[in-house]
C-alpha cells in the first residue's frame, strides 16, 4: 500500500514501538506515556520527567526545530528516529540554548540516564572514542 509521504516526518509505528520497548526495559525509566502520535512523556526514577517529540526527518535543521516547537512546545527533547537520520549543528545548538535535547534514536537512549548539561551534551561512547 502506498504511503504517499506519510513517514517523511512522522516516525513509523514500529519505530515508535521499538523506542518505547527500549525505554520500558531501562532501569531509569518508571513509566512511558503516549500523549499523541509524536509526543511521549517519560517518567524517570532519579531525574525529571521528559516530554519528547518523535520525528522521522532525515536531517533536522533549524527550520524543522521551529516548526516542531510551534506545534509542540514545551519540549525537553526532539528525537529523530531512523538510524540514518541526523541533525545540523545549528539546530543542535539552538535547541541546547533553549534547554531542549536534540538527539538521534540511539543517542537519546544514552542521554536518558542524565539530567542538566550532561543530558544536553550527551555524546555516545563510540563518538567519544572518535574525538580522542
Percent range of helical residues = 25-40%
Largest sheet geometry: 5 strands, mixed
Low-pLDDT runs of 5+ residues are none
Q: Give Rg in angstroms.
A: 14 Å
Number of helices: 6
Number of strands: 7
Please give the order of strands in the largest beta sheet: 1-2-3-5-7
Helix and strand sequence: HEEEEHEEHEHHH
Shape: globular
Characterise the protein shown here.
- The protein contains six helices and seven strands.
- The protein has 132 residues and is of the alpha/beta class.
- α2 runs parallel beside α3.
- It is 39% helix and 23% strand.
- β1 and β2 form a beta hairpin.
- The longest helix is centred in the first third of the chain and has 12 residues, at 13-24.
Question: What features would you highlight for this structure?
Answer:
two-stranded parallel ribbon, alpha/beta, 6 helices, five-stranded mixed β-sheet, 7 strands, globular, 132 residues
Short overview:
This protein is of the alpha/beta class. It has one domain.
Set down the secondary structure blueprint.
Elements: H1 13-24, E1 29-34, E2 39-44, E3 50-55, E4 59-60, H2 62-72, E5 77-80, E6 86-87, H3 89-97, E7 101-104, H4 105-111, H5 116-120, H6 125-131
Parallel strand pairs: 3-5, 4-6, 5-7
Antiparallel strand pairs: 1-2, 2-3
